[in-house]
Specification:
The complex is a heterodimer of chains A (299) and B (256). Chain A has two domains: 3-215, P-loop containing nucleotide triphosphate hydrolases (Rossmann fold), CATH 3.40.50; 219-298, 2-Layer Sandwich (Alpha-Beta Plaits), CATH 3.30.70.100. Chain A has helices spanning 43-51, 92-102, 107-120, 136-147, 166-179, 192-198, 236-241, 267-280, 294-298, and strands at 3-14, 17-28, 33-36, 58-63, 77-80, 154-158, 184-188, 201-206, 209-215, 224-229, 246-253, 256-261, 285-290. Chain A contains nine helices and 13 strands. Chain B is an all-alpha fold and 256 residues long. The chains are: A alpha/beta (299), B mainly alpha (256).
Chain lengths: 299, 256
Amino acid sequence: MSLIIDVQQVSKRYGDKTALNKVNFSLEQGAPVALVGPNGAGKTTLFSLLCGYIQPSSGRISILGHGPGDSALFGRLSALPQDAQLDPRFSIATQLNFYARLQGMNNKLAKKDTVRVLEMVGLADSADSRPNELSHGMRKRAAIAQAFLGSPDIVMLDEATAGLDPANAKEIRALVAEHASTVNFILSSHDLSELERLCEQVLYLDQGQLQQHQTLSNDNSVQFLTLRMKQHHPELMPAILQIPGVSQVNMSQDREYLLSICKEQAQGKIAIDLLMLLQKYNWSYTQLINGKTLENQLF
Amino acid sequence: MVRLFKTKRGLLALLAFGTIWFIILYYFVGSASAIVTSPSSESMVTEIFRALGLSALLEWPVAEYAIYWLVAVYFFPSFALLVCSEQFCADKHRGTLRFITLRTTRVELLLGRYLGQLLIMGILILMTSLATTVLAVVRDVTLISASLQIGAKLAIALLIVVMPFIALMSLLNTLVSSARLALVAATLIFTLGPLFLAFINYQFGHSLYLNLLLPGEQISRILSQNSPMVSYYLLPLIQTGVLLLVSHLVLKRAAL
């Protein structure tokens, strides 16, 4: 595994306000990484620092062995910056073609790659449209398309699916999953279930500080089962506690239960016992999750 | 180039430019020869040019270029401020620069946009200069060689004159978020700037040569075309270099 991003003691201050405070983390090549945190936590600031849009007040950032904004990263690091818009005066194909040529492609290759990325995000028919002729979601997809031009090593997507309809959001998630084996993604989103599905590592920022840096599939999380029910049943929790190996049951939120499991017990058997219990009492469930949800891990 | 020739705003600017220059060429430059050589107005024109220190211009073999030079040396710097007011400030405001700076360095962006604007101004200057040559040749075909020679010399001189004006707009683009604000700032620089510099000179009791900071400071001196060639080139070139360097330093640290 090689190091792709190394952030050491990075702080960013805007006047008296500290947006990021001595953030440290290293990311290795591999599965997508989620960047999570409440509004104003510093996610976009961290994205902007990594892309070289702003300079850190202190600390050091290394991306693929280079400083942010270094010309060695052109074509290797791409991003969907939050709120950045394409030029309304030119068609999206013209602009993507221009970006591809800036990345070093010749005109023929740039045109071919523009068609490829626009097809990827389902905008092949709108290639000649100008951004202001497109809906918000389509503009977003065009901006996502530019991040896939060429063959980048790292793609950072800031709120990629925010504002997209469910079908298109699903398409974008599929796109990320499809390329996850060849591209290192860093995703920021408020949709935790989306990040849970796509990412294996999570960076949790809060008030400018990195609170957690963990792997979702670590050993601790397999000691839990999360059960989501269709309806509330008062007898459910005592009944679950009767299953051998279940040490504790908590209601993590409405109709959602978190089962703590003794380490020595086989989790698969407990899951089967649980499903049989539900069938016996004719209680309908919606979801059974192996481990804690990302939401329950973080909050 | 694409922005000038393929966008509505660019085409409108070109249309305005074409209309203004049609009027200038047709009514002033085209009739220059008649005005300068006509017995009824010759003495008056000579007196006016002498009073302005421009009598050297009357000795040019192609009279059209005397009028062309007088108009163009003031027109093109003003037009450069207008046309070059939008280099990258709107891109910066809209966030488009975030896409671009992942693919190019900020200094390449600055110089690329600057050189693009310079190329546009160069083409426009060349077109007007050639049109003047055409007018002169229509009057007297033997003037073709002299016209082309003077036309080329003046086109280069004009291009150098506009260079610091474009560079000033590059600097303003790094500081403001719209072309309109850049134009307002440029207007304030050229109206309040000289007053401010005069006030500073007055306070210190002697000239600090701060007026050399203002683009176009040399225009009144080069107007007569009597000054040595170096004064055409040196000051605007130094001003351009300084303005672009400051623009680079500002843009390098700017948050995009």
